[in-house]
Amino acid sequence: MSFMTPQELKQKLDEGQKIFVLDVREPLEYEEWHIPGSVNIPLSSVYAGAELPKDRKIIAVCLHGMRSERAKQILSMQGYDISSMRGGMVAWNSVYDITEISSGILQIRRVGKGCLSYMITSDGEAAVIDPTIDTDVYMQAAGKNRIAAAIETHVHADHASGGCILAERTGAAYYAPDDGQTTKHQTVSYGTAIRVGDAEIRAVHTPGHTPGSMTYLLGEFAFTGDTLFIESVGRPDLGQDAEENAGILWETLQKRILVLPDTTKILPAHYGSEIKHGLLISAALGELKRSLAALSMQKQKFIRWVAGNVQPKPSNFEAIKEFNKGLAELEDEELRELEAGPNRCAVR
Ligand SMILES: [Fe+2]
Predict the structure, then answer these.
(1) Of the residues 72, 91, 110, which one is the last residue of a structural domain?
(2) What 8-state DSSP symbol labels residue 234?
(3) CA of 16 to the centre of ligand 1 (A)
(4) Ligand 1 centre and the CA of 22: distance in Å?
């Protein structure tokens, strides 16, 4: 077979098959964003006669699937067992992995970009927190449950939201905090309760990453969006004053998050490392208090730490935000190009 779809590659990697993932993009492209475990040999080096393993299947990868197709042609003539991944890394961005958190709650993980969304089902209804534009994934995951609510934690800067699209496709109510959007949504504010079947999701206003950021509470679970991750906190500098909003984020963490019970399970909107099949991305708040130094810093030190760890901004974040706010209409294909790349919503 000369092509492999990104979904097929993911399945083979999950099964632990011996595969050599050959990324033929330029080193800078690779460093920015790649499939974990892949090896970077640019197309020019493939032309120059790079030595590759002969004892296993090679899958060539690039951004859109064109350079990898060329690498496949060259290497198959040299006797290698090689396929090209169809659609490249842009298509890899639409590969998902679903893990059950507890009965009726799913973590839906976009493996290429590390976006995490959640589905809560109760009594025939489903709510989706932070859906991406691959709305089919949620419709399939809902099964016979009616999707009754699409809920945003905040206006995202690193990926296009599927909230509006999912609401339109399913007739679900669309809930979002006030982050300057013009989208048709029901505004969530501190204390808003969203009912899904028998479950009641409660909103807590947790500003800092964005002015409107919400954390949603359901029993022992806290869906913290980009306020608190399990390896860091959300960056407060995207499109707003970093220092001022670092101070706001510190207040939020101290007064609205760290006051929750230590047993609270933190469920963030992103993960910055490899998403492994079957492994839930979550931690108890008590664990995070021990592992994340940022949570025990004094306010001024926290502000200095944030200022000293400013990362490059996510690619195209302004255009993505405009779309998510309802200020720009973009076609699906344009959105997928804008979104290509890693997530960069955390302070690192
Ligand atoms: Fe974000």
Answers:
(1) 91
(2) B
(3) 32
(4) 31
